[in-house]
Amino acid sequence: MKIETLADFKSSLSGDVPPEQLSVYGKALWWMGKGNWKRSHDLIQNVNDRRAAQIHAYLHRFEGDLSNAQYWYSKANTSMPDTTIDQEWESLVIQFI
Which end of the chain is more exposed for a tag (fewer CB within 10 A), N or C? Predict the structure, then answer.
């Protein structure tokens, strides 16, 4: 399955593993789409760039650890979005597929 849109990405969530074509960022978001915070966090926590920091921030916002999330948003050179957590996930998926 070729992943080109948010709808494609969401459809892929019916599988047991993320599509091979996805980057580490896409795979981390895929696992979050499956509700597996730990698997997502394990993938992204040791990637040291702005994109990973943005996803890391989202993950800590999702779990409710807002001070940790703020730290990671700062590392990503951005701020916590004024959107719902679901809207942020969708925005990140669109950005990283």
Answer: N
